Structures are given as structure tokens and as C-alpha cells.
Amino acid sequence: MLRRFRRRRLALWAVIGAVCSLIIILRMPLHQLPLERDEAAYAVIARDWADGAIPYRDRFDHKPPFVYVAYAPPVLLGTKPIQTIRVWATLWLVATTLVMWRAGRRLWRSEAAGVLTAILVASWNSAIFLQGITFNSEAIMLLPSSLALLFGLKALDSQQKAWWMLAGVAAALALLSKPVALLILPALIITTVAFKGDVNERLGRAILVIDGLALVLIPTLLYFALAGGWSQFVEALWTYNTVYLDQTNATISQLWPIWRSLLLLLAAGIVGATMAWRRRRYWPSLTLAGLWSVGLIASAFVSLRAYPHYYQALVPALAVFAGGLAKVRLGFLQQYKDFSIVLIAFLLAIQPLASLWPLYNKTPEAQIEQLYGVDGREFFALAPKVVEWIDNNVGQQASVWVWAAEPEIYLYGDYAVPSRFPYDYPLAILPNALDQTLQQLRRQPPNVIVTYGAVRPIGFDAMLQIAPYRLRVHLGGYDIWVR
User: Fold this and answer.
1) Residues 57, 63: Cα–Cα separation, whole Å
2) Using one digit for the tens of pLDDT, what is the confidence trace for 111-168?
3) Is 342 exposed, middle or buried (0-12, 13-18, 19+ CB in 10 A)?
4) Number of neighbours of residue 6 by Cβ within 10 angstroms
5) Dist CA 172 CA 181 (whole Å)
6) 401: helix, coil or strand?
7) How does it sit in the membrane (predicted)?
8) pLDDT digits over 357-366, tens only?
């Protein structure tokens, strides 16, 4: 009996290891994919934070600070930023996959359901139509949000209160990855007060979740306040994001291709959720998972923007219930239950995995063009060539101001950012931002200014009067000016 149990556990770990290894292998040909502008901004701020610049105060961005913490290991340890960040993104997905495997297993009380959940998370969060190979804030948020679910499920099963505090800690890290993660908090709070125990016991569990949140959030807020960056912290994460949210303008016709690509997983999730109604014995766990899934789904839809990576949050929310399909026994395959599970996994995972295939025989430049169209071809793919031209014709020690929204140039060239802004579009939104930046640039005019082709930003003519910049070369979508 014990020997059979050990063999079964060994086989289970072998299957999970195979799933994780397969997803690493399938993503490897895309590990040279150039970074897009958001990824580059996170990497530049992580680099500069390590060098002493305080986010928000010295480097503006409107994402919460855990994003830069997540970028720190590949930026600080790797010598090739593209490959290192892509490999790190794959390892982050593997960690998320393992967490969701345990969550699916615990929710359904089924090893097969846990494995199916893991397969769906790994495959769909690698889908090209969701820009799954990128390491955006959504991908970062999924690991701590998945941990919040797993810790909550452990708390319900074991009745050990410490798990509730850990769930609060994980939820806080998710919130510090993306503000919309706030929508998963009701899942934890409602579950703590809705099931088992007297009023004091229920409130005690809720307080533990809040304690976990406070354990992370209070030191974070104190750090920025004591560093003298509190007003900039509020400006970036509240003022700017409020304006950003108000600019939602996507139409149904723009969003539908993204939503359509998720219909198969959505159908599987709905079927699994329908099956869950029969499991009344595990009602607290199902309630937690259901509310958590609703929160993640709402977080994906709250902005209604036509950015595919926003909808990565739907994948674990749907996958954790779609994992219940592993308990379905197809009638004509009743005697081959293992085969039926493999068949279900194959049918559900083939669509996202097949989306990777067209990129395998392409260069990294062609890959990024297929993903991002004109932006990929004219900007993301050509940023390394801009750096190469500057290093060869001006010098590696040149001071560079990228008067555009392309911070990848700073990253690839390891250039210092001569302003608070590693990209320029906040200059038109934040009060006094443009004037302050121009004053700083006038005091120390950079050797090189990079603009978009045939575009002269507001204030550029004034810079031409201060220093004799001359257009030296046009590379793709870039103009390079040298004084």
C-alpha cells in the first residue's frame, strides 16, 4: 500500500515536471523577442532603483512598486536584458503554474484536476494571442494572486489561522503588482466571515487577512513617505491612473477578437463551474474560488482596453474551474479514464500552444512585428540598432535623451535617464512636468536626442536654440539628433 502510494506520488511529480519542462521548451525559441515599451520601463526603473533612484520621486511610472521588485533579479543578474527577462518571465509562469496545480488539486480533491489546471494555466498564459510571452504587470500579478487563493484554500481545509494571514500577504503583493487586484480581496474577506464559527471567530479570521495586508502595505507606504516621494507616489498611482482610466475608448469591434480567442477556455470554465454545484460538501472552498475568479475576471475587464495582455488574468480564473473536467468520464471512454483526461487536456491546450508555432521559424525582429505590428517593426525591433549607432558614432559614454515612449533604448545602451521621465507621454498630462523636464535638459543638454521620425515634440525647437542639434540619421521610426 505504501509502495503504491509512493509510486503514485512519483508519477504525479513526473507529470508536473513534464508539464513545466514542456512549457519551458516551447517558449525557448521566443526568448530573444525584443522588449516592448512597458517591459523596458519596468526594467529601467528596477535598474535605477538599485542604483539609488527612488521610483515615482526620481523615475516616473504609474505601476505599483512590486512590478519593479519582480524585474530586479533579471535586470541585476543578467548581462543580456532581453534573454534574461524572457527566461525570468518563463520561470515566473512555471511558479504560477505550480501554485495553480496545488490550488486546483485542493479545490477538486483530485490529482488529475490539479494537473489539468496546471496544463491550462501554463499553455493559455503562453498564448501569442494574449501576448503571453511578455512580462507585463498582469503576468506578475498572477503569481501572488494565485498564492492568495491557495493559502485561502489551505486555511479552510486545515483551520490553521496563519494561512489567512499569508493569504492577506499574497493579496497585498498582488495589489502592489496591479491596483485592480483589489477586486480579489472580497473573496478572502467574505469567505472568512461567511462560514463556520461564532462571530468572534469569523471576525478574527477577517482581521488576520487584514493583518497580512497591513504587514506588506504599511512598510511600503512608509518607505516612499520617508524617502520624500509620497506626493509623487500619489501622483503616479492615483492622479495619473485616474486620468488613464478615463481615457478608455476601446470599442466592441476592437475587443471582440481578444474575447473570441478565449471562448474555448470560457466554455470549459463554465462547464466546470456547473459541475461544482454538486459538491455541496466543499461549499466554502468553492465559494472562495468562485469569488476569487470573479474578481480576476473583473480586473481584466475593468479598463476595457484592447490590449491582449490585460486578459491574461482570465486564464487562472477560468482554468481553476475548467480543471474539474478531469473528473468527467466520457461515456464511450469510461473504461479508459486516464486516456479521457489526456484527451480533454489536449483539446483544451492545443489552441494556445498552436499559436506559438508560426513564430518559431522567424527572426526576433519578425516575431515582434507579428505581435505588435508597426510598433514592433519600427520601434521595438530597431531599438538595439539605435543603441548600436549611438555607441559607434557618438560614443558609449554619450548622454542620451529619448524624447519618445521607448525606454528600451536606455536599457539596451545602459544609458542614464537625464530626466524624471523614462518615457515622454506623461509630459502632456502631468502639470508642470514638461516645464520641469525642459529646465533640467537646458541645464545639461544631452549629447544625443532620439525622437520619433518626423516628429518634433513640444519644446524641441527651444532645445535647438540652446544647443546646435543636427539630424544625423533616420532609423526605422526614429530620428537621431546629435550636437
Assistant:
1) 13
2) 889 999 999 999 999 999 999 999 999 999 999 999 999 999 999 998 888 999 999 9
3) middle
4) 10
5) 9
6) strand
7) Multi-pass membrane protein
8) 999 999 999 9
